[in-house]
Amino acid sequence: MPASLRHAARRLRRAPGFATAAALTLALGIGGAAAVFTVVNGVLLQPLPYPRADRLVDVTHTLSLSGLTRVAQSDATYLMYATDNRAFTGFGIYRATSVNLHTLGGSTGAPPERLAAALATPSLFRVLGAAPLRGRGFTDADAQPGAVPVALISRGVWQRTFGGADVLGRHVSVDGVDREIIGVMPASFHFPDARTGIWIPLQLDPAHTNSAAFDYTGIARLRDGATIPSAAADLQRLLPQVPVVYPGRLTAGAIKVMKMQVDVRPLRDVLVGNVGHVLWIVFGAVGLLLLLACANVANLLLARAEGRQRELAVRRALGAGRALLLQDSLSEAFLLALIGAVIGVLLASAGVTLLKTLPMGASIPRMADVHVDAAVLAFAAGVALLATFLVSALPALRAGGASLASLLVAEGRSATGSRGRQRARRALVISQMALALVLLAGAALLARSFQELSAVNPGFDAADGVAFRLDLPNAAYPTTRDAAAAELRVLQAVRAVPGVQAAGIVTRLPLDNEAAQDSAVFIEDHPIKPGQIPDIHHMVFATPGYFAAMGIPLVAGRMYREPEPGANPAQLPREVMVSEAFARRYWTTAAVAIGKRIRLVANPRAPWSTIVGVVGNTRDQGLDQPPTELMYNQLVSATIDSLAYVPRDVAFVVRGGADAGALLPALRKAALRAAPSLPVYREIALGQLLSAANARTTFTLLLLGIAAIVALAIGATGIYGVIAYLVALRTREIGVRLALGAPPAAVKRLVVRRALVDAMAGVALGLIAAGLLTRGLKSLLFSVSPTDAVSLTAATLVLLATAVGAAWVPARRAAALDPAIALRSD
pTM value? Predict the structure, then answer.
């Protein structure tokens, strides 16, 4: 260790209180910056874990339709693009789903397992450059219709379900289909996300395509020299040929009317979504916190330099030059920053681990790729070096630039002190107050936005409600009557559980992340012009009991009838219900909508369905979005076409007593008794839907709030230190005032006024900075302006109150001085 560092270490050991306070302050700043950088690095900066990931793109289509602005790939568009494109070296598609998994040949009575899954073309794995850890991957032969059913499993499923035993060639039941496990994917393969546990080859038949069913996500790899615009233009050239080569519901006229355009985007941008904006905001906030911590430590070092005036005077007298004094100051600051960086990295690692366990952490994409690595350590080292110069610059310049005469000024308590140093310390405190106000203002704005979001009526009663899902595979329930009977049988079993007040079935819960089912809607008294595309609306299948279980009120009309177990779906009346927003879109009031007729197919000879009821609005797309225009079909219905239809992946919603969550074990047992082969999955309290809807705001508010609280504490410490120091310098003056009859209250006001002057100067600068920086929060705010007066006023008052509180202890000490002792102290 260099001599200067050894001397600095000895000096810090002789002042453990100072060293601890300075190192911990820097640890908070460096740790916060390192923690957020860890997330930013893993989510935004690191490339996707695939070879030449910058060449991977997502391929979708944009539309100009009311209610539908983007669609992905159909089997027909994929076959067209994959065969004839000139821009890609490979093109694959997949569809994320979930499946019921039964292990075969194991112990009898083993419970079924629900797994996140992906149906994927073999080409997708070639595009991603992914190969199995064990066994083989999919071949084109596996994707041929009628091929032997096979599957790939994740390393997590291999370890958890099969104990890491040899599974190659072993058979499992996937949604009732016997499949052979042919490979195990490596732990690093997280596609489409880290939850995916099994991959199944997507078997497409070019002779039987559904060109208008855009159910698949397209991923492609650009050729060398190809660009995103050139790739989009190339596929746009092929789009009009799709109806020619694969005739079906997607026609050339529909493509033209919908203004359908190919959209090619970098895959990483699609996977990350809009979370990048949130992370950069939080990163900026902890950057401010780091600056604030550095200002506070610089203040401590400046005070420490003033306490060492006699030592510095002696060293200057013995020939120590300015460079040596600067080196000593930098060495001391470097050791403090190094200790702060080590503690900060440990805090960052613990913080990231905690974030991964929190529900809000699950809302951040690519969290599986987030961990403290060499890049984070290098970042922490760089921040430590930056902090070294920031915290030592002003103290070193003040000490190194001082004349010998000024350093030999008397050091007693009655010394007046250097006005230059006082100004420097006050400037640092004012900057701390300004930075703290910016963080407080951001947190206050988000708190107000969170309050506004929490006050939004979601359209349902989240209290005392729970839900769980079941999926009925075609292999186990081959007919619609089989599926309907099983679902209604489970519903009856759930209703028989003691404590259940209401229960129903629905295909999609409000505010859920499940993909919405959309449909074109034809309305009898709102005919469309020839060639015009009808409006697209979300469609939900539900039993009447669902509305009671969710607390969704009936606004007009009546509920459609619930079918009896064993009823023939094709013989049920064609009745539908709509939300109030849907009714008001086409008719003046909800009551007028009753008796109107709608149809979901373009065939003019298809029968109409009658609207028999209008129910209250729900906000399916988010609390910050307007109420959704919904159409509700009977769970067992024949409204889609001439054939009976029963959805197979459904949620059971249950309303219980004061603690509906306590019913979940009994509900699970009842469902398993009624359908032993079906795993119960996605058990959730309805309140969690609201929490998830606020997850992004909550995440940002939590981190900004923590940063604001720490900033406030650091700012209060700075105020306290400066005021305590000024009181010490003015001990004689205060003694004279008290001796001349000044009341203690006047002395308190004098001291507190000084703190308020500095705090108000910080507020003035902070308000200017907040007015500029909080505009970046605009996309995260709901019904709140970035310059909201209530939020800024609240932040200002909190800051001023904190300044007064920090100055109150030194003020009380000053007012309690004995004038005789104070006058003798000099």
Answer: 0.80
